[in-house]
Amino acid sequence: MSSTPSSPQTPGGAPPAPQKSSGAKIILWIVGIVVGLILISFASCAVLGFYAMHKAKQAGFDSDLMKKNPGLATAKMAVAMSPDTEIVSSDDNAGTITVRDKKTGKVVTMKFDPQKKAMVITDENGKTTSMTMTGEGANASMEMKGPEGTMKIGNSSDKTPDWVPVYPGSSPQGTFSASSGSEQTGSYTFVTKDPANKVISFYGDSLKSAGFAVSNMTSNSDGKVGGMVSGEDKANKRAVMVSLGTEDDGTHVNVTFSIKQ
């Protein structure tokens, strides 16, 4: 049983899932592909390999552009892969591409700067969202800033709030943080050689002593212990959830937290 990062619970329960338009989903899908490949390309363009370059050229794109500006090249490929989007215009020298959603008619412009490892998305109303990459490989991280707030993914330098218990000897990985309006959320993972029951006890006791209302759950499948600890501090509008599972290399732990101002 392994744990994977999930959206943090907000105090008082899980937040309702945001309803996005089909146009927004399509654009986010394109951006997701772009960002994913940028993470790889900035680390080493060589990992794309000859096959990817050949396919890019078959699709009508210049493989030299993939080396020069992988974000722009990938955006072109992503648009071509979607039957619901089309390229309105593009400028390889300026590093820009304007895309239209065929269903809604909405238009966005993306500008890529490979030197700064940055990308700016501007919608038809002039609102902008910026993405900036830092680091490479396992140390890569991304920060996104827009009208809805700020989000950081990867090797974030943000410190965990002091009200979130930190397991002794743990080294947080896969960090995530976001802020929107009055709410801040975050998560991280780590692996420890300590047994799952010890981890569950630590978080349960630590949260209780900090004034959180705590509930926990454990499971045992073929000798592999897993579980969940959730804590809520209604007075301070704070919530912490810890999920964990046992693998061959140790206990895998995912910690999520949120606070409303």
List the helices and strands and how they pair.
Elements: H1 22-43, H2 49-58, H3 63-68, H4 70-81, E1 85-91, E2 96-101, E3 107-113, E4 118-123, E5 128-134, E6 141-146, E7 149-154, E8 173-180, E9 183-192, H5 196-209, E10 213-221, E11 224-233, E12 238-247, E13 250-260
Helix pairs in contact: 1-4
Structure at a glance:
The chain is of the alpha+beta class. It contains five helices and 13 strands. The chain has two domains: 22-143, no CATH class; 156-260, no CATH class.
Task: Tag the structure with descriptive keywords.
elongated, alpha+beta, 2 domains, 13 strands, 5 helices, 261 residues, disordered N terminus
Describe it for me?
With 261 residues, the protein is α+β, with helices and mostly antiparallel strands. It folds into two domains: 122 residues, no CATH class; 105 residues, no CATH class. Helices cover 25% and strands 39% of the residues. The chain has five helices and 13 strands. It has a 13-stranded antiparallel sheet, with helices on both faces. The protein is elongated.
Poorly predicted runs are 1-26, 35-56
Structural class given helices, strands, pairing? alpha+beta
Radius of gyration: 21 Å
Work out the number of β strands: 13
Strand content: 35-45%
Tally of helical segments:
5
Largest sheet: 13 strands, antiparallel
